[in-house]
Amino acid sequence: MSSLSRRAKTVLVTGSAGIAGFLFVASGITADGTNLRTGGLEDLRSLVLDRASKVGVLQSEVDTLATEVNDLYITKISPALSTQINQLEQATGLTPVSGSALRISLDDAPREPGSPLPDGVSPDDLVVHQQDVQAVVNAMWRGGATAIQVMDQRIIGTSAIRCVGNTLLLQGQVYSPPFVVTAIGNISELQQALKEEPGVLLYREYVERLNLGWDVSILNQTTIPAWQGSIEQR
Q1: Distances from the Cα of 29 to the Cαs of 39, 118, 128, in angstroms?
Q2: How many other C-beta atoms can be found within 10 angstroms of the C-beta atom of residue 191?
Q3: CA of 122: how far to CAs of 15, 60, 178, in Å?
Q4: Helix axes 198-210, 130-142, angle to 10 degrees
């Protein structure tokens, strides 16, 4: 195993797209020379938690308005146009999807407080990162998934998966590990895509070496909810 850290190796695997995603998150907390893993990160976590609380309140208001809009839609729309809209909603992830699924769970490595790290290992190597979750999601898309869910939220092509420290930020909600990805589709094709994804292969190396969490299970039947966010590309 090379002495390069997992994050450094992942950059080599994922290329410029991975670097751009990392810099998008890091730029806000490294301004004015702030170190990524010092006080600036703690301030960012507090900000994220505060914003997540406000997002929850706003989401409740959005759900209420969406119900009112849907009621008006049902009474005003023509049957032909309704069918066309339903087809578009399915293609963009705006309707629930049911079927057999692959469920993948990623977790930080267990560690006793104060215990020494193995030679050549940093704390950064012992946690699940944004690129690890993204690699699993990428594999599911390549495997032909008809719907993907991360934690309790539907994912579409424009979804952004971000990490702050070892917490996941998704649509204004904050999640702690283990991080769970669920994908509906052809199980054998999803499994094969998971075996071939470079980012997943790299993560599996650290699973074997440092005991990071990794579990894959098959769900005979599950339902992934509709996407709740904006479908605009930003």
Answers
A1: 9, 29, 19
A2: 15
A3: 22, 41, 20
A4: 130
pLDDT in tens, 112-151: 877 888 888 898 899 999 999 999 999 999 999 999 999 9
Q: What is the pTM (predicted TM-score) of this model?
A: 0.65
Q: Give the pLDDT confidence of 50-76 residue by residue, as tens digits.
A: 776 777 777 777 777 777 777 666 666
In angstroms, the CA 139 to CA 145 distance is 9
Distance, in Å, from the CA atom of 140 to the CA atom of 43, rounded to the nearest integer, reads 34
Superfamily of domain 15-224: Protein of unknown function DUF881 (3.30.70.1880)
In whole angstroms, what is the distance from residue 161 CA to residue 134 CA?
7
User: What are 93's two structure tokens?
Assistant: 């992830």
